[in-house]
Amino acid sequence: MSRMGLSQGEILALWAVLGVAILGLLYAVYLARQILSKDKGTPEMQLVWQDIKAGAQAYLRTQFRSLLPLMGILFLLLGLSVLVVPVSPEAVETFCRVPEGLSRQELMQYACSNATWWIAAGRAFSFLLGASFSFAVGYFGMLMAVEGNVRVASAARRSFSEALTIAYRSGTITGMLTVGLGLLGGTIIFMIYGKSAPDALLGFGFGGSLIALFMRVGGGIFTKAADVGADLVGKVEAGLEEDDPRNAAVIADLVGDNVGDCAGMAADVFESFEVTIVSALILGIAITAQTGVLKWILFPLFVRAVGVISSIIGTYLVRTDDEKRDAMGAINFGYYASAVISVLGFGLVSYLYMGGDWRPFGATVAGVVLAIAIEKLTEYFTGTEHSPVQDIADSTRYGAATTILSGLAEGYESTVWQALVIALSIGVAIFLFHGEPYVYILYAVAMTGIGMLTMTGNNVSMDSFGPIADNAGGIAELAGLEEEAIKVLDELDAVGNTTKAITKGVAIASAVIAAVSLFGSFFTDTNLVLERLGKPLLESINVADPLIFIGLLVGGTIPWLFGGLMIRAVSRAAGEMIAEVRRQFRIPGLMEGRVKPDYARAVEISTQAAQKELLPLGVMAITVPIIVGLLLRAEALGAFLAGLIVSGQLLAVFMANSGGAWDNAKKLIEDGLHGGKGSEAHKAGVVGDTVGDPLKDTAGPAMNPMIKVINLVALIIAPMIVRFDRLTPPVLLFLLILLAAFIWALRISKRPVRYDVEE
C-alpha cells in the first residue's frame, strides 16, 4: 500500500478498519451462537416453524438459481466495458511503470495494457463480490430470523424481556452482517486498488444494488400475494382470525415476512451502505487529484469503522425488564446511544486526522441528525399514537372509500416534509463548503449519506425485529400457546410494526442521498473522459434546452412505470392465491379442522409468481439508462437521473407511509376501536390495509434499489456515451437490441391480470 502514497500511520489505520469489519462479523457469529442455544418450544411449535423454514429456504434457493445466468452475462459485460474506454490516470499511475514527473494530462494519454486488465478484472470480480455479499446478507439474515422466531415464541411463555432480547438480537445478526460485509468489501477493494478503486468499486456497488432490487421485488411480490390472499379470503370472506390454521395462505404469509422484510430489507440497506462508500471514494479521489491530499479518500472508511463499533455497542444495550415491558423505549435507547457514540467518534477522527478541517465532520453529523429526523417523521405519520393513523381509523366508520381517501391524503402530505428535511440536509452540505468547487459539496452530500447510515446495524436490527415478532405470534397462534404468551407477542408485534415503518423511511431517505452522491460521481466520471478528449467539461445541466428537458421528463416517469408494474405483479399473484385459498376452503372437513390445508401449494404459488416478475423488471432497469444515453447524450442522461431521483423519492415515501398508516389503522380497530374485529369498520380497515400492503412492502421499498441500479448503470456507461457520440451502424444496432429487450420486458410485465374464481 505504500505505492499509494500512504503514511505508515494511514496503513495501520486501514488495517484497523479491516479489523473492525471482521469484528462486526464476529459479533454476528457470537449472537448467532447465543440465539441457537435457546430452546425451540413444544413439538407443535416446531412443526409450524419447520414449514416456515422450508418455505423460506426453498424460495431463496429458487431465486438464486434463476439469477445465476444473468449474473454470468453481466460479469462478462462489466469486464469488457473497461476495454471500450481508457482507464483513469489513477489506474495508470497505480499499475503501470510510468516515467517520473508526468502530468495528469500526460497520464491520460499513456498507453498501458496492464492497468486495463487489472481494472477489467477488478470491476468484474467486484461485481460478483458485491452480488455475493448482498445475497449472503439477505440469505443468512433471513435464516437467523427464521431460527429466532420460534425461540421468541418459546421465550414469550417465560418472560417479556427474554422474548424482546431474542427477537432484537436475531435481527442484529442481520444488521452486523450488513455493516461488516459492506465495510469489508469496500476496504479490501481500496487496499488492492488504491486511488484507482472507484473503477472496481462501481462493479461492487452495481452487484449489490442489482441483487437488492431482485430480492426486494421478489420478496415483496411473494409476501403480498400471500398476505392479500390470506386477508381477503380468510378474514373478510370466511371471518377467520389472523393466523387461523385452516387458512391455506397462512404459512406462505409468514414465509413472506422473512423473504420480504428480512432478506429484502437487508439487501436493500446493504447496497445503500456500499453505494455511499463508492460515491464518497469517487468524489474523494476527484478532490485528491486537485489537492494531492489523501485524507479525503480515507476519511469515509474511518467514519464507517466508527459506525460499526457504535452499532455493536448500541444494539447490545437493548434490553428491558418484565415490569416496564417497554420494548420501544429499549430499542430507542440503543439507537440513540449508537448516535451519540458515532458523533463522538466522528469528532475524534476529525480531530486526529483531518487537521482541523471540521467541515466533513459537520456533514456526517448532519447525516445522523437526518436519520433521526426521518425516523420521527415516519413515526408521526405511521404510528398508532399520532393523529394521522387515528384519523384514518376514524374514517373506517364510513366505509372503505373514506378509508382509502384519508390514507391517500396522509401519504401525500408525508412526502412533503420528508423531501424538505432531505433538502435541508443537502443545504447544510452547501453551507459547509460554500465557495468551494462543486465536487466538495457533492463529497459533503456523500458524507451525509455515510453519517445517515452510521446506525445501519441498529436500523436493520429494528426492521428484522418486526417480522421476527410477527412470525413468533403466528407460530404461537397456530401451535395453540397460552393466552399470556400470545399477549406478550402481540405487544412485540405492535412495536415491530412501528420499527418496520421507521426503517423503511430511513431506507428511502438514504437511497435518495446515495443517489444524489452518485449523481455527483456521474459528473466526475463524465468529465474525466471529456477532459481526455479535449471537449468542454459538463459543469451543469441546462433544463431550458428542450432535449435536456425531455431527459428530465422521461426520468420522472420511470418510478411510476415501475410502481405500476410491480403492483400489477402483486395483483396477478394475489389472484392466483385467492383462487387457491377459496378452493381449499371447499375441501370437505377443512373448515371443521379435520383436514390440514396444503400449505406447500400456497408457498409454491407465491414463489413461482415472484420469479416470473424478476427478469423483466431487471432488464428494464438496466436498458432504460443506456437507451436514454445513446439517444439523448450525456447531459440529457444527467437530467434523466435528476428526474428519476426526485420522482422516485416522492413516490416511495408516499407509498411506504400511506401503506404503513393503513396497516396500523386496521390494527387499532383490531385492538377494540370502533367495534373491533368483525365490525364494519374492521372490514373497511382490512380493505385499506390490503390496498396499502403492495405499496409499502413491494412497490415503495423497491424504488430504493431501482433508483441506484439505474444511477450505477448510467455511471458505468457515461464514459462510453461521451466517447461514441454518434449513432454509427454498430451503435444503432446495439440500440435496436436494447429497445427490443425493453419492449419484451414491458409486454411480459403488462400481461393481463386474471382472477380464476371458478373452481
Structure description:
The chain has one domain. The chain is globular and about 85 Å long. With 759 residues, the protein is mostly helical. The mean pLDDT is 84. The N and C termini lie far apart (68 Å). The chain has 20 helices and no strands. The longest helix is centred in the C-terminal third of the chain and has 72 residues. Helix 8 runs parallel beside helix 19, helix 9 runs parallel beside helix 15 and helix 16 runs parallel beside helix 19.
Structural category is mainly alpha
How much strand?
under 5%
Number of strands: 0
pLDDT < 50 runs, ≥5 residues: none
- Listing every helix as H and every strand as E from the N terminus to the C terminus, the arrangement reads HHHHHHHHHHHHHHHHHHHH
The biggest beta sheet is recorded as: none
> In angstroms, what separates the terminal alpha carbons?
68 Å
Q: How does the overall form come out from the CA principal axes?
A: globular
Average of the residue pLDDT scores:
84
Domains counted in the coordinates: how many?
Answer: 1
